[in-house]
Amino acid sequence: MNTITAQIENKLDQLLVVLDKDIENIHENVSRLNELRSLVIKRDDVSLTKLLGRIQTDTHKYKQNETRRQMLRKELADSLNCGIEQVTLTRFEAGLSGEKKAQLSHRKTMLRNLTSQLKKEHASTAMLLSDCARLNSALLKGIFDVIQPGTVTYGPGGATERSSTAFMNLQF
Asked: Cβ atoms within 10 A of the Cβ of 38, count?
């Protein structure tokens, strides 16, 4: 792949544009996960609904970019007479030199870093939501289970109290 034809070079330029959109999309998703955690902690239902609406709106944009990337990979595979699984950034990077190689390397590094960051943010968000579900479950169990006579509870001052009745104060 030392000699790149004009057709392949054109497709590589198009691929660089698609990779830029991928970088932008991943960066947006990292920001959205941060925003999601913040809104869950604040219990801001209105903003959570707006965030969900933005995510649903942008889903079409992500799908279009994914379709374009896959189409370019297929066209490049056909031009190079190889399978689509062999069309990788690493393969092109090895066959390029100069400015194109630097551009591709930069995007590849950015994608790798952003993907790693996205995985961390996803794990943090999943842990927060898991803890919220666990706490909600414990609260519901505490609310709806009948307190057994003689159960030890804690008062507002932190002192232990023996309870013989069950009552609750809920705000809807």
From this structure: 11
